[in-house]
Amino acid sequence: MNIALMLAIAAGILGLLYGVVQTLGLMKANAGNARMQEIAAAIQEGAAAYLKRQYTTIAMVGVVIFILAFIFLGYLSAIGFLIGAVLSGAAGYAGMLISVRANVRTAQAASDGLAKGLKLAFNAGAITGLFVAGGALLGVSGYYAYLTEVLHKTAHDRDLINALVSLGFGASLISIFARLGGGIFTKGADVGGDMVGKVEAGIPEDDPRNPATIADNVGDNVGDCAGMAADLFETYAVTTVATMVLAAIFFGETPYVGMMMLLPLVICGVCILTSIIGTFFVRLGKDNHIMNALYKGLIATGLLSIVALAAVIKYLPGLGFDTPFEYVSAGTTFHFTGMTLFYCGLVGLAVTAGFIVVTEYYTGTGKRPVVSIAQASVTGHGTNVIQGLAVSMEATAIPALIIVAGIIGCYLLAGLFGIAIATTTMLALAGMIVALDAFGPVTDNAGGIAEMAGLPPEVRHTTDALDAVGNTTKAVTKGYAIGSAGLGALVLFAAYTSDLKYFAGLPDAPAIFQGLGNLTFSLSSPWVVIGLLIGGLLPYLFGGMGMTAVGRAAQAVVEEVRKQFREDPGIMAGTSKPNYGRAVDMLTKAAIKEMVIPSLLPVLSPIILFTIVYFIGGAVPAFEALGAMLLGVIVTGIFVAISMTSGGGAWDNAKKSFEDGFVDKDGVKHLKGSEAHKASVTGDTVGDPYKDTAGPAVNPMIKITNIVALLMLAVLAHGA
Amino acid sequence: MNIALMLAIAAGILGLLYGVVQTLGLMKANAGNARMQEIAAAIQEGAAAYLKRQYTTIAMVGVVIFILAFIFLGYLSAIGFLIGAVLSGAAGYAGMLISVRANVRTAQAASDGLAKGLKLAFNAGAITGLFVAGGALLGVSGYYAYLTEVLHKTAHDRDLINALVSLGFGASLISIFARLGGGIFTKGADVGGDMVGKVEAGIPEDDPRNPATIADNVGDNVGDCAGMAADLFETYAVTTVATMVLAAIFFGETPYVGMMMLLPLVICGVCILTSIIGTFFVRLGKDNHIMNALYKGLIATGLLSIVALAAVIKYLPGLGFDTPFEYVSAGTTFHFTGMTLFYCGLVGLAVTAGFIVVTEYYTGTGKRPVVSIAQASVTGHGTNVIQGLAVSMEATAIPALIIVAGIIGCYLLAGLFGIAIATTTMLALAGMIVALDAFGPVTDNAGGIAEMAGLPPEVRHTTDALDAVGNTTKAVTKGYAIGSAGLGALVLFAAYTSDLKYFAGLPDAPAIFQGLGNLTFSLSSPWVVIGLLIGGLLPYLFGGMGMTAVGRAAQAVVEEVRKQFREDPGIMAGTSKPNYGRAVDMLTKAAIKEMVIPSLLPVLSPIILFTIVYFIGGAVPAFEALGAMLLGVIVTGIFVAISMTSGGGAWDNAKKSFEDGFVDKDGVKHLKGSEAHKASVTGDTVGDPYKDTAGPAVNPMIKITNIVALLMLAVLAHGA
């Protein structure tokens, strides 16, 4: 077997091994006293029960699609779909399993100080991160190895391409369900619990008297952790696959096609190594600044990745200006060298860095946007929400410009393939980025357990400090995922147009493809414009559905909690225990029910649009409209997603600004429990479904729309 | 002079005459008692002072642009710009003058019953509506007559095209300042006043003890009335001009070019007549259903317009399938007949009807979306806002589909020119639509005056009933304006691409245009994609700025009112009068200051984008990116605008659901002053800048971006 491919597979295994070894270490940590373990067990039980039901439901959809893939695309695609789906689901499940064990141990470790709490929580995050990256890389490269080394498929075999794309589809499908279902659960519990607990009853977050408090902690694990892990798995897998597909198309006639197809896998492979090394750099400095500790790890990973990237390029295409490559795309011939490709990788890293800096600015405590929301809370609920919405909209500007700059830079360096390599390099850091994210829900839970178990307030204080940083790192991950989608927009669109051209150029091209070779997707075509509009509509409709679902779930939680308080006054008095299970059960049913229709929206929309336009206008308009839809969904999707995730993070941290008292511009200090604090809780409540349900689910939604379109082409070509 | 042109001019004059005659009648109505007149005088004074300052500021920008137009495009364009700007400003000013006189008379008339109040308020709205439509038509057709009949310019003269486009630019420029400045003023006052008055002090809206109450009423006149009038003037003028420009391009080589250029003017002309007739059909039936009364007028206008449209088509191109016309656009030859053009007009009317029905559904009291927001208020502020945001996002779906259906229908019937005629026909009803809208602020003010003057509660009840309908009609107008922008998107883009092709084809084409003849604006071009992204960013950045401005103004109002309450406890006791002027002055300064930068965003963005891309990539990328920007701004703009205007209307009416007590799903009745009502006030507060500041200003923003691009082409061609 090719040594480069072996390296990629080995790196994937290494990622998983790291996860296993660290897990063994984690399990040895002190799991706290009996009360803590009892609470943790309830959370574990709820999370496992929810995920079981969620996966059962997804499996029903999955089986249908598996059969369709088998019928229309053959068994290799069906197996690819299965691999993607199972691994994406496993990544989410593993994330949950780690998280529900790390939470109670972090609560215990936090009793011994910030450094210990941070170390344990970050280690838990790193396990999930490496499981995600390692699993995705192993899945893609392993199946690729099977297809090419065992079955001897080559870049010319559509089977190979279809099987890889189907793998991406499997991952995407699980991920949208997991993101949305988990998001509805967690935010239904969080919003409902906060509204009735904090605002009405005036009891603190995670107070054991609140019947929704276990559900809230379950939600962190199934939404912020399992949902996020499945999402990033999907982003990683789809980006790698898309780059490989492009390489197969662009370099199919050259001797170096195999090398170019392996390039994304090897880049991902070495970055798993740099991510693992980076985790050892996360250490709290003397300043006790948590974000700086995390940054140390991230910067180490980034710098090492530059070196690793240079090595990979040197080993594969050759690091110099003297080995020119060329390919043709959309009628233009592009020339590049190993060196310009290396520069594209640097652009990918720069885009990542840019997104992190901007997201931290817009969501970080003490920065202008968050302070402006906190200040607006002083004048009431309304101005808080207005300012939060203003920040959320404004927060899209610089990220959009960064994406634009990235696209232009890579395009000028190496054309579309350059953009693909930049996106791959960006995603290759996923192990580290997920680690930063996944530590958030662990600390959030740790705080909850500390509160419920009645640990001393300084433990809660420690976990709160970790949690505040978690808000920013969570926003960073979401921005990063959607940013890679934006940067990769042209890559997925190019895969669509190149496929179309390929099928149209076949000597025995099916009738529907005939005469499509020169489709330009010109903005002057009304079919392109309506495709953009319909694509643009999807994130709005999807976002609206997601928000409605959370609103509905939260209202149900509020009513449930009010009912328990009413029926048993002993709960508030602390003399009797609330029925935590009822809230968990109710949310489980609600989330499962609500996730299905929105998740099917991006699966069915491309098919419906294509069919309708085909019957009105014929094949050319139908393919034009479908292609434009893929870009339309990205053009609005980026703004919807970034505004929601950044805005939500800003609202959350604006609320946190009041925990230690917020000093307004007139020098008045507003404490927890003040009117201004209550207004900030309203904003946080609104931000919750923004940042943790609707916003992040836009990313897999965009991918699904794109992948379904690619698979439709394959089906039309295959079935004809 | 051509009889068709004379007809258009005559219709414009007729519209203005109707306005003058009705104004004389309005002034004769009883202006109420001394207290009422005193209040009305304060509102008049504040509104006039604000508009004077606003226009002075705009004039400074206007003078600069006038000089630039004169230097780069010649005196005809400069004069065109001046005409558009002055008339648009005049339409806004006239709207304000009528409104501040009709308010107090409506309050008085409402004492005599709902029918009388409705009649007077609607008449006032109709005056504004006909001033807007008549003025715009007279401006465009009069200047066109001067250019063609006096100066003998023909469709081949770029001077003619540039002069008309400049007229549109003048109108757009005023309108964005007026929409945004007025919007910031009115919503700063409204939000600030409500938050401190209703929520904190617990006094009703428009209570004379609230120092912001006069400012709130001034705001209705300068924002909802003057700003709206300038906006619709702009939409009307730009749509007509764009259709004329397309006609000149498409039919330049045919003998019927003159007829095709006149067609939009004559359609607008006859629809002024049908709008006037329609106003006489507005009459309260026995059911006392206000919306039905208004619909009678609208339906009469619509049905009459079908007949009038048929007559115009019969008289000009000929109403039959036997007079085929053809033109070439983007390489495709289109055939159409008078009859298919008539069908396109019907599509325009159907789109209008569709928008009205959908908007009424999403914003009407008692319908599912508004009830869902009211229901969500029962569980608190947070769920209210979440549900409102969900409704706002969902509300974009059907309008987008309507636009898509309209585009496809017209394109299949008669190509791009068919879409242009549909958009023109849609806009031709503006007289009637503005009448429905402008009656809203009049009744809102009437309610305020009734409250402040201490009229009996049943008067307030009558004006409240009128005002609730006004919320829906206001949302309808905004949806209608943005819908026409969506439908017209391809028209403006076609004007851009056709101009580009024209300049590139000139024998002495300036260097920058050379080789541009076959620009395809393909989605495969990265320059097109970045153009879409940057265009897509504008509505978000603009919306964020608008929301921030309102938030800031509202916070200042809250502080001012709190200060007055603190410094003089006699105000709340009712023994001393608050200082109304201080709030008006403060808001005037704030609105003027805050409106400038966002308004310049769409003016400068096309120029900056073009320049940067030109230096990075050269002429082709620059023109591609600029063209794509024009569609990008529409793709996100439509969703941002519709979600904001419909969502805001829904929040407002959800709040109004509590005025007579809202019965929730469990049968519990929530009255004014209840916790649920307070939560609904928060939502309304958030919806205010959504629906009355940021949302509606997106429409002129889109137009400006497009027109600036057209003018840039002219300048580049002219200057070279």
What does this structure look like?
- The structure is a homodimer of 720-residue chains.
- With 720 residues, chain A is mainly α.
- Chain A has one domain.
- Helix content of chain A is 82%, strand content 2%.
- Chain A contains 20 helices and four strands.
- Chain A has a two-stranded antiparallel sheet with strand order 1-2. Chain A has a two-stranded antiparallel ribbon with strand order 3-4.
- In chain A, α3 packs across α6, α4 packs antiparallel against α7 and α15 packs parallel to α20.
- At the A-B interface, α5, α10, α11, α12 and α15 of A face α5, α10, α11, α12 and α15 of B.
List the helices and strands and how they pair.
The structure is a homodimer of 720-residue chains.
Chain A: H1 3-28, H2 34-73, H3 75-110, H4 114-150, H5 158-201, H6 213-251, H7 257-279, H8 290-315, E1 325-329, E2 332-336, H9 338-363, H10 368-378, H11 381-394, H12 397-428, H13 430-452, H14 457-487, H15 489-505, H16 526-567, H17 570-573, H18 580-617, H19 619-656, E3 662-663, E4 669-670, H20 675-719
Antiparallel strand pairs in A: 1-2, 3-4
Helix pairs in contact in A: 1-4, 1-7, 2-3, 2-5, 2-6, 2-18, 3-4, 3-5, 3-6, 3-13, 3-14, 4-6, 4-7, 4-13, 5-6, 5-16, 5-18, 5-20, 6-7, 6-12, 6-13, 6-14, 6-15, 6-18, 6-20, 7-8, 7-12, 7-13, 8-9, 9-12, 9-14, 10-11, 10-19, 10-20, 11-19, 11-20, 12-14, 13-14, 14-19, 14-20, ...
Catalytic activity (chains A, B): diphosphate + H2O + H(+)(in) = 2 phosphate + 2 H(+)(out)
Site (Determinant of potassium independence) (chains A, B): 474
Transmembrane segments (chains A, B): 6-27, 55-73, 120-140, 160-178, 257-282, 294-316, 336-358, 397-422, 480-498, 518-542, 596-616, 622-642
